[in-house]
Design goal:
The protein is α+β, with helices and mostly antiparallel strands and 371 residues long. Helices cover 41% and strands 21% of the residues. The protein folds into 3 domains: 184 residues, Reverse transcriptase/Diguanylate cyclase domain (Alpha-Beta Plaits), CATH 3.30.70.270; 67 residues, 3-Layer(aba) Sandwich (MutS, DNA mismatch repair protein, domain I), CATH 3.40.1170.60; 107 residues, 2-Layer Sandwich (Dna Ligase, domain 1), CATH 3.30.1490.100. The protein has a 5-stranded mixed beta sheet. Helix 7 links the parallel strand 7 and strand 8. It starts with 16 loop residues before the first strand and ends with a helix. Bound molecules: magnesium ion (MG).
């Protein structure tokens, strides 16, 4: 037994956090748009009988789930469980558009939105709901507005932190609204299997089960010193989580209109090649910063200032989002530059800016599932 200093815990109940999770999102969109899919097991994946068995299930409707099909399962396994299911190849651009419509609705209520996936987000509604009663009303209204405008059902969880809000939304699917107040923490957490507690991974779960900690109630009954001695720093975290404590903020981003890089040159750039080399370097920096900020854009703006202080800006917009790829950005920058007539006079300033920006975060998560 090492020396132990008991750390007090503090449950912050001041915030009001929603977790909104669309029900079987892709499947629901396909069922909405195609009535013949509504009463059959529907699996969103390439049909493995046509791809030679490859592919992964993106999602499945509730009828297919009843047969044991779930997302991230191989499509070949899904076809064994549900041989009569309809397979539909996912249409990610469509789901992305619906996701954008969903976010437009969220934005009417709060800017503090943290997207987790196409169909899932945390919303911090502390400021727009001055008390608990208003927060509950807002949760109901939001769910109703999503249904009225998008014709899609969602499950909503409301609590005072992200951990509990997510547990709440998972509690009653589909179309549920679940609220976890302070007095609900024990009933909710006590019956949870240990691996569902925030921060408990597969390995830790195995370790806990060996120690006889199988449920939330078992974890709650374990002393802080025992947890700290066995699991080190994580032990303190488990001690907090099982008491419903989670102080992580909702990670929202102020909406950015544009992101750019510019440089002034002395001596001036006095050959076409020198200018193109600099554009290449700016394109690389711009791609890096877009990736870092998890944004992408549709419009590239080139700014040039010549030795006589004449400034020119010219933009090019493309239909879809430009990949955050230095070669692609450079190619368009070069296009714009050539469109301005190429080299005319020595250049003292060059700038590249991306506008028409949108968040990249949720697209990446989804697309990775799909080779
Ligand atoms: Mg969902």
């Amino acid at each position: 037994m090492t020396d132990f200093l008991e750390m007090p815990i503090h449950l912050n109940t001041d915030r009001r956090i929603l977790h909104v999770d669309m029900d079987a999102f892709y499947a629901q969109i396909e069922m909405r748009d195609n009535p013949s899919y509504r009463n059959v097991p529907l699996i969103l994946a390439h049909d493995p009988r046509k791809t030679g068995g490859r592919g992964v299930v993106a999602t499945a409707n509730y009828l297919a789930r009843e047969l044991g099909v779930h997302s991230a399962m191989s499509a070949a396994e899904a076809v064994k469980l549900a041989p009569h299911a309809v397979f539909v190849t996912p249409d990610f651009p469509k789901y992305r558009d619906v996701s954008r419509q969903l976010h437009q609705i969220f934005k009417r209520y709060t800017q503090k939105i943290e997207p987790i996936a196409f169909d899932e987000a945390y919303l911090d509604i502390t400021q727009m709901s001055s008390n608990h009663r208003k927060a509950v009303a807002l949760a109901h209204e939001l769910q109703q507005v999503i249904y009225d405008e998008l014709d899609l059902t969602s499950s909503v969880g409301l609590s005072f932190n992200k951990f509990l809000a997510k547990l709440a939304s998972e509690h009653n699917k589909p179309s549920g609204i679940t609220i976890i107040n302070e007095e609900d923490i024990r009933p909710f957490l006590d019956k949870l299997p240990i691996q569902d507690i925030r921060g408990v991974g597969t390995k830790t779960a195995e370790q806990m089960i060996k120690l006889g900690i199988n449920t939330g109630a078992d974890l709650f009954a374990t002393s802080q010193s025992d947890l700290a001695n066995t699991f080190g720093k994580s032990g303190y975290a488990f001690y907090e989580h099982i008491r419903g404590v989670d102080n992580r903020p909702v990670m929202w981003q102020r909406e950015r209109k544009s992101l750019g890089k510019e440089r002034t040159y002395g001596p001036f750039l006095d050959t076409e090649q020198a200018i193109l080399d600099e554009l290449k370097s700016l394109a690389q920096q711009l791609a890096d910063i877009l990736i870092k900020e998890r944004l992408h854009g549709k419009t590239l703006v080139l700014k040039l200032r010549d030795s006589d202080f004449n400034t020119e800006t010219r933009r090019e917009t493309i239909i879809d989002f430009l990949p955050n790829d230095e070669q692609e950005i450079y190619r368009i920058a070069q296009d714009i530059f050539e469109g301005l007539g190429g080299y005319q006079k020595p250049i003292r300033l060059l700038g590249l800016t991306m506008t028409n920006l949108a968040a990249l975060s949720f697209e990446n998560i989804v697309l990775n599932l799909y080779e």
